[in-house]
Amino acid sequence: MNKFITIPIITILLAAGCGKSEHPDPPVERVGLAVRFFKSMAKRDAGIAVRQGKNLLALDRSQNNIRTMIAIQESNQAIADAQKLLDEGKVDQALQVIDRRLQEFPDNYALAGTRAKLRQLRNAEKLLNDMKRARNAAAMSGARSAAETGLSQNTTTKLADFFRKYEAKEKKIAALERKNTQASLDAASDAAERAKAEDARREAENLAFMQEMAEKTGESEKMRKEAGGVPFDPSAGSGEKR
């Protein structure tokens, strides 16, 4: 008999009180069922393990360790069922499977952890789309931070690598934006200086024009005064006929 089979048998024998004269030796049926139960768990065949465990527990209700292992296998089965739904893209349905099982086993940390992951996965598409739609470094940084936090329970090597590459791109865009901003500021400053110079030139031209007009007006007034008055024709406007 191999090592795997021997250990469960010893466990069952001790739990049954082997060696004590007041208890009979465990029946062959119970030992065989226990062996199959542990084999099914080793093969990760949770469905069969649960069924075998319940049959084993029916033979002896005092076996609390078997009860605990059945609960573990039941959670494994729930997780397996949820995974199948998740593979089909049915996140909400997968979460419902886990929620129902947690109502039966509220202290099961495996189920609780799975529920936390599934709750995050419901928002994964939106979080990743927000990263894709970001159009500047600030928006990219915000979207990445939200996604890293929102998917923290589902971190994988591939996802972490995706975030690193995205952040590197984000930093390049930030540097380019700073360069463009400085160039824009420089261009704006140059434009302001040119506009200032142009305003000064026009002001000088306007002043020169006003001075020129003032000088011409003065000369015209002087010439008029020097020419004297216009000779008066007493007959002009008298209305008399000649």
Give a written overview of the molecule.
The chain is mainly α and 242 residues long. The chain is 78% helix and 0% strand. It has nine helices and no strands. 15% of the residues are buried. The model is unreliable at 1-21 (pLDDT under 50).
Q: The biggest beta sheet, please?
A: none
Unreliable stretches covering 5 or more consecutive residues: 1-21
- Kindly state the percentage of residues in helix: over 70%
Q: Which H/E pattern describes the elements?
A: HHHHHHHHH
Shape: rod-shaped
What class would the helix/strand composition place it in?
mainly alpha
Tell me the radius of gyration.
48 Å
| Distinct helical segment count | 9
Round the mean pLDDT to the nearest integer and report it: 77
How far is the first residue's CA from the last residue's CA? Answer: 163 Å
Instruction: Count all strands and give the number.
Output: 0
**Beta-strand percent range:** under 5%
Core attributes:
single chain; 242 residues; mainly alpha
Question: What is the secondary structure topology, with strand pairs?
Answer:
Blueprint: H1 3-15, H2 28-42, H3 46-59, H4 64-87, H5 91-104, H6 109-121, H7 124-133, H8 137-150, H9 157-227
